[in-house]
Amino acid sequence: MAKIHEQLTLEGFEAVLARTEDPKERRRVIMAHEALSNEMDAIGYLHAGFCQASLPHRKPKDETAPWVRNNGRYQLVVRPGILPLRDGTVLDVGVPYGAKARLIMIYLQTEARKTRSPHVDLGPSMSAWLRRLGLAPTGGERGNYKPVREQVLRIARCEFTLRTTTGNSSAEISDQRLIDGIKLWRDDEDTPDLFRTGGEWVRFVRLTQSFFEHLMEHAVPLDEHAIAKLKNSALALDAYVWLVHRLHRLDKQTLVPWHALSQHFGSVSEHRVLAFRLKEALKDVMAVYPDANIEPTSKGLVLRPSPPAVPSNKHLILRPAAIRG
Hints:
- The protein is an alpha+beta fold.
- Among the domains are: 1-37, no CATH class; 47-218, no CATH class.
- The chain has helices spanning 2-11, 13-18, 23-37, 48-52, 98-115, 126-132, 145-157, 209-218, 224-229, 234-246, 258-265, 271-288, 320-324; strands at 43-47, 67-71, 74-79, 81-84, 90-93, 119-121, 159-165, 171-176, 179-186, 200-207, 219-223, 254-257, 294-296, 300-303.
- Strands 2-3-7-8 form a four-stranded antiparallel beta sheet. A three-stranded antiparallel beta sheet has the order 6-10-9.
- It comes from Azospirillum thermophilum.
- InterPro entries: RepA_C.
- Pfam families: RepA_C (PF04796).
């Protein structure tokens, strides 16, 4: 993909696009052109822990079982929660999954980081909020209302455990809810009645104070233009945030084997299939992160020190003490 950026710089967008026939490659040329053209003034944020350990790509077979994902010295465990219903019953809510869950996580943490407040307003209507996520406000079985409604409720009700190995024989375990409370309101739009809640929707979300303070100190800046281009692929989003977090911290070339990557992006049993899928996803990632110095090889992914996706002068590092003051 680095060659595409060189060609765009030397020859121009129209010339490169004109001789590119493959539809996927044409899309990547357009993505690369837009990435080079952007001022990158739109910045999103995600907690560093979620850059290193990801949610499920698709709906788990057993939605009531905890989700476990490993990445080196990090282990993420997501435990499903419950949702009290209007009729007095309680519904088991599964773990969040897919690209939309990732967009919601980035949105909530970006708004909290930018406003310096754990209280996040999702907007006056569901359709308005969908547009802010970059999604079309569509209903029906293939629309965005139902899956987005579902994912935000899953995120709001689940619990997270992050285990970090700190030495040869020591580890730190942190149990954390991301969201301390939600305010439901009745959405009178013609939308699917998810979870039998009579059209109730989340209007306000309150992040837990401990997670909010940790987010303010450990937020990873992301290019929102890149997120928008990758919004339909959970794998591409995972690869992007992982590389954004890791590449600029490297001080030497590193080889990450495919079987190790499968611990983060897939499952051990399917690491050969994962390698193929990840190579394809990385073509899109490199189109929107042109400075990413990476090279897929037969043994794994070679990572080399790279400039950050968002230059340090484009964002402000905030500390919890400054916020409270």
